[in-house]
Amino acid sequence: MAAVLESLIFLSLLRKSCMPLRTILRYPDSRLHKIAKPVTVFDDRLKQLVTDMAETMYEAPGIGLAATQIDVHEQVIVLDVSETRDQLQVLINPEILWTSEERRVYDEGCLSVPGIFDGVERPSHVKIRAWNVDGVASEFEADGLLAVCVQHEMDHLRGKVFVEYLSPLKRNRIKSKLQKEERELKKDRQPVPVR
Ligand SMILES: [Zn+2]
């Protein structure tokens, strides 16, 4: 399968490269609500972005990452839902062509909402069209975890974070918890005064 070959090429690139990891934005950062623009140029810059995103996702570790989450507002997604962590998929300018009427609730988590997991209901099957880094389009069907992951990441490109599906009460609790953690993190980053 082309996706597998692509992932192998990328993994070998990753092992050779020592690019810095990109910083993942944390909810409720307002930049997570920006709308991503379609990619129009399929060049080396795009390949580098995808390589950085894959490395960031594997290091985190996560099963999916949208460019929005690293403050790049272009329609680029990387994901790998395999247990072996060697089946990288790259979705550029993804479009949902079809969704099933059947819906399922999955417990979702997000690298931008660390430590929070909650049930979100979505269509259980989807059909997607997306481009690869070389600008070649293909269509595929997804179900199970892959369907969840694709829809979750595509939401990021539209500026939507999964906690927005939860009740306002839950969302506000999550917001305050993460804001508190962020303040603690900032405190830890303060330089220690020299005595
Ligand atoms: Zn996410």
Count the DSSP helices: 4
Q: What is the level-2 CATH architecture name?
A: Alpha-Beta Complex
> What gyration radius follows from the Cα positions, in whole Å?
17 Å
Cα end-to-end separation: 61 Å
Strand order of the largest sheet: 1-2-3-6-7
**Bound molecule kinds, no repeats:** zinc ion
* Global mean pLDDT: 91
CATH superfamily: Peptide deformylase
Keywords:
single chain; 195 residues; alpha+beta; Peptide Deformylase; 5-stranded antiparallel β-sheet; two-stranded antiparallel sheet; 4 helices; 7 strands; 34% helix; globular; binds zinc ion
Notes on the protein architecture:
With about 200 residues, this protein is an alpha+beta fold. It has helices at about 1-15, 45-60, 145-155, 170-190, and strands spanning about 65, 75-80, 90-100, 105-110, 120-125, 125-130, 135-145. It has one domain (about 1-180): Peptide Deformylase, CATH 3.90.45. It is about 35% helix and about 25% strand. It contains four helices and seven strands, in the order ααβββββββαα.
Give a summary of the structure in a few sentences:
This protein has 195 residues and is an alpha+beta fold. Helix content is 34%, strand content 23%. It has a single domain (2-181), classed as Peptide deformylase (Peptide Deformylase, Alpha-Beta Complex).
List the helices and strands and how they pair.
Elements: H1 2-16, H2 44-59, E1 64-66, E2 76-79, E3 89-99, E4 103-108, E5 118-123, E6 125-131, E7 137-143, H3 144-157, H4 168-189
Bound molecules: zinc ion.
Zinc ion (ZN) is lined by residues 110-112, 152, 156.
